[in-house]
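INTERNAL AUDIT FORM
Audit reference: QA-55
Scope: verify that the stored structure record matches its stored sequence.
Auditor: D.O.
Record contents follow.
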Amino acid sequence: MRVLVTGSAGFIGSALSIKLLARGDEVVGIDNHNEYYDPALKLARLARHNKHEKYTHIRMDIEDTQGVTKVFDDFEFDGVINLAAQAGVRYSIENPLAYINSNVVGFANILEGCRHNKINHLVYASSSSVYGSNIKMPFSIHDNVDHPLSLYAASKKANELMAHTYSHLYNLPTTGLRFFTVYGPWGRPDMALFTFTKGILNGEKLSVFNYGKHRRDFTYIDDIVDGVIRVLDKPAEPNPDWSGESPDSGTSHAPWRLYNIGNNNPVDLMDYIAAIEKALGMKAEKEFLPLQPGDVPDTYADVEDLVKDFDYKPSTDVQNGIDKFIHWYKDYYKI
């Protein structure tokens, strides 16, 4: 296939591009290389696949309507995977308009490109953050998610609603994947694994929010990429049993689907820190702080639908995944 991957210099986008190229697909990647975190890391990720004969890289913003239109005009895509987004829950409190521009306007441009070019399947990144104030565990795609706690979460919920409209009006198959705390080598420096590792190595006190009483469904990057590709290969279909009298939040009468993609095994934050300490052979000094605005205490993915429909089976346990990250981190930063 020829696949458009937006956010292709990002953590997930780069790993996904490598896997698609390895199986023989042609990949066109879009990334704006913004400075939300160190652009050098994005360039280093990109260097792993930029010179592949079947990879084409385009540096641009997806909120550039004319630019996105031209990409769709220049290439004939079989599938599109939209991972480009302004990420981060806490940053959305400081700079909300960045999320409207990238996550809403940019996503609308991708939808328009798919609509006008008869794309077989659009797969896009949603987030576990859409569950917001929900406390019923595990989080299920069949539950209502109308109470987000950050603009980042609201923008991802908006993506799901926008995609449904296009699936309904234009018969465009779309599948949204709610990612649950992705981690691993080449990850994002603003994520806990990165900041904790750096802090421990530098002898700094770790800021442990919610007094360490977080639980997260940490999901290793290879398991995420495997799930995304399985979904890409099977375009969304209408649910023939869907009823407007008792509407199912995860399916539709249109070719539109939602799935959680997680490890289905939440880990206590203190156990996560202990796994990092074990991998480094060092102990951390900790400062316990209240829950941050926009954060949720726990995440736990119900992945039953993804298992049933795609035989999805995450296989990497947290200690093994952290060990691999630490090995990469020391090598990349020459420690």
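Auditor finding: record pair retrieved intact. The radius of gyration is 19 Å.
Action required: none
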